[in-house]
């Protein structure tokens, strides 16, 4: 099956016009929330600065006391014994030993400083703006998703590079203007997330980097770290055991015993591995035993990832004389003086790109209006709506009453398509912001089950999708790879296309004329590699269109 790419993403397969309660622990699902976390950390930096200042003052007092006592011992007490005959000298010695040393040792100042620091942290925590454990796990899964879909080398990611091995050489597929290397503890936490999911394919790769970095640091522990070299060795050894690499599991366990020789559990593991190697000696093989875990949802994973990895490269054989560009007014009086540039991208399925559909200021307004309403995106599951790992984003629904711009967009869509986009014949404008490695695996916009919540509007299925690209352009180089994070893919019998146009809109029909779903509209959004992706979706339903003008599936009709 041939296919084409688009630089604008699709949206969800659900309908919801009521804002769901805000659920914490979902910061990773929206880059907007991740950006807001910068201000949160600035608050913590301020609290830490105050703590350091108070602790510095306390330590200066301790240093002063130390200097005073040291001087007395070097200048007074080391002299003639007559010095102690002086009752003033004797009194001050007794006072220090009975009072001053006790006041210093049992001072509450350190505890008070620590308590004030902790209180500042708790104040920030009460605001609900700190990431939860779910966020850390979700961010780690996002990195592993990017690793898989774009075939990225973990070693490159650790150094802050997005690299893929091509012909035996690491090739940068994206060169960010700003990046940071990962620490041994960073890698340990990613590996630990995979480990706890029993995903040893990923845990081995990330824990290997963790062990390497911890070793390079001499195994020194930092107070901000959760993991240590011993922790990384422990998890890595068991991960290798689970993948069948018993020899390496034994070697790592023996190294761990050098650091913790009294660890009874590891001693038992060593004995177990030694027995296994005696009973079943390892065969010489180049197979590492690392196998990616299967997915329970994505049946087209290989095709999906292959398309994402092409990064929108267009084949040289792409030609179709029936596809064209023009200035389109749909015979509408409202567009006669200012037609919009239309580009017909595909005839089956029928897909049209409208260039410069919105302005920069309109795009900014849409993003601003959506911010307070963003909630975790959901998908249809029977008659319910649930969150899913195969869709990582947040969505907001904007009514026409939210701002005059929403009504103007609806009117503009009607002028272009001739369709009735007023509720209940269309859904409210859905605005979507994607998170760390945010994606939406292959799906249809139209309902494929009679029990879908889409039918609660009693206006039929989603006959068409109108998607508006409201992202800001990523700072870019001369490489086209800068835009790979915005791909929309269709798995259709057309030639592949790849276009990125800021403020553009994409339109396609989801149903055939007989009301049946068009299988060629299966599409997906590749994971966001770098960038802040926003799209706005208008889903138009079957009913209410009976007396409206329709843009023809075939422009020649």
Layout of strands and helices, then pairs:
Blueprint: E1 4-6, H1 31-75, H2 87-105, H3 109-126, H4 133-149, H5 154-158, E2 162-166, E3 169-174, H6 184-196, H7 200-216, H8 229-242, H9 246-259, H10 264-279, H11 301-309, E4 325-328, E5 340-347, E6 350-354, H12 360-371, E7 375-376, E8 379-381, E9 384-386, E10 393-398, H13 404-417, E11 429-434, E12 440-443, E13 462-469, E14 488-490, E15 505-509, E16 523-525, E17 534-541
Antiparallel strand pairs: 1-14, 2-3, 4-5, 5-6, 6-15, 7-10, 8-9, 10-11, 11-17, 12-16, 13-15, 13-17, 14-16
Helix pairs in contact: 1-3, 4-6, 6-7, 6-8, 7-8, 8-9, 9-10
Features:
single chain, 557 residues, alpha+beta, Serine Threonine Protein Phosphatase 5, Tetratricopeptide repeat, Jelly Rolls, nine-stranded antiparallel beta sheet, 15% strand, disordered N terminus, iron ion binding, L-ascorbic acid binding, TPR-like_helical_dom_sf, Pro_4_hyd_alph_FE2OG_OXY
């Amino acid at each position: 099956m041939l296919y084409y790419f688009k630089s604008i993403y699709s949206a969800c397969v659900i309908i919801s016009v009521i804002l769901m309660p805000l659920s914490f622990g979902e910061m990773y699902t929206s880059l907007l929330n991740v950006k807001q976390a910068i201000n949160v950390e600035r608050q913590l930096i301020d609290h830490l600065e105050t703590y350091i200042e108070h602790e510095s003052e306390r330590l200066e007092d301790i240093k002063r006391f130390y200097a005073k006592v040291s001087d007395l011992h070097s200048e007074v007490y080391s002299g003639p014994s007559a010095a102690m005959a002086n009752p003033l000298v004797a009194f001050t010695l007794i006072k220090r030993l009975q009072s001053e040393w006790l006041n210093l040792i049992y001072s509450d100042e350190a505890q008070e400083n620590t308590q004030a620091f902790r209180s500042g942290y708790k104040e920030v925590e009460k605001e609900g703006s700190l990431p939860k454990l779910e966020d850390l796990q979700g961010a780690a899964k996002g990195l592993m998703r990017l690793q898989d879909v774009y075939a990225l080398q973990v070693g490159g990611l650790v150094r802050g590079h997005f690299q893929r091995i091509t012909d035996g050489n690491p090739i940068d597929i994206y060169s960010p203007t700003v990046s940071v290397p990962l620490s041994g503890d960073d890698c340990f936490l990613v590996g630990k997330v995979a480990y706890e999911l029993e995903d040893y394919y990923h845990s081995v790769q990330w824990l290997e980097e963790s062990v390497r970095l911890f070793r390079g640091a001499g195994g020194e522990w930092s107070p901000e770290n959760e993991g240590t070299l011993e922790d990384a060795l422990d998890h890595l050894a068991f991960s290798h055991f689970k993948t069948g690499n018993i020899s390496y599991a034994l070697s790592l366990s023996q190294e761990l015993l050098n650091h913790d020789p009294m660890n009874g559990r590891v001693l038992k593991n060593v004995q177990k591995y030694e027995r296994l190697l005696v009973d079943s000696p390892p065969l010489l093989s180049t197979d590492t035993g690392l196998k990616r875990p299967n997915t329970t949802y994505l049946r087209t994973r290989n095709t999906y990832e292959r398309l994402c990895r092409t990064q929108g490269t267009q084949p040289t054989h792409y030609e179709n004389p029936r596809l064209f560009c023009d200035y389109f007014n749909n015979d509408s009086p409202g567009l006669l003086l200012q037609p919009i540039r239309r580009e017909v991208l595909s005839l089956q399925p029928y897909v049209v790109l409208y260039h410069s559909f919105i302005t920069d200021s309109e795009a900014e307004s849409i993003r601003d209006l959506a911010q307070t309403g963003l909630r975790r995106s959901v998908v249809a599951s029977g008659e319910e709506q649930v969150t899913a790992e195969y869709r990582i984003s947040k969505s907001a629904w904007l009514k026409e009453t939210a701002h005059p711009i929403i009504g103007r967009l609806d009117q503009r869509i009607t002028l272009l398509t001739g369709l009735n986009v007023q509720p209940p014949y269309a859904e409210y404008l859905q605005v979507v912001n994607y998170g760390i490695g945010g994606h939406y695996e292959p799906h249809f916009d139209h309902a494929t089950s009679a029990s879908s919540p889409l039918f609660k509007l009693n206006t039929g299925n989603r006959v068409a999708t109108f998607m508006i690209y409201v992202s800001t352009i990523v700072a870019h180089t001369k490489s086209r790879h800068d835009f790979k994070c915005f791909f929309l893919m269709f798995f259709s019998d057309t030639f592949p296309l790849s276009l990125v146009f800021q403020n553009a809109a994409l339109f396609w029909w989801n149903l055939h004329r007989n009301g049946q779903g068009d299988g060629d509209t299966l599409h997906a959004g590749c994971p966001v590699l770098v960038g802040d992706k926003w799209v706005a979706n208008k889903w138009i339903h079957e009913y209410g269109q009976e007396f409206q003008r329709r843009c023809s599936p075939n422009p020649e009709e």
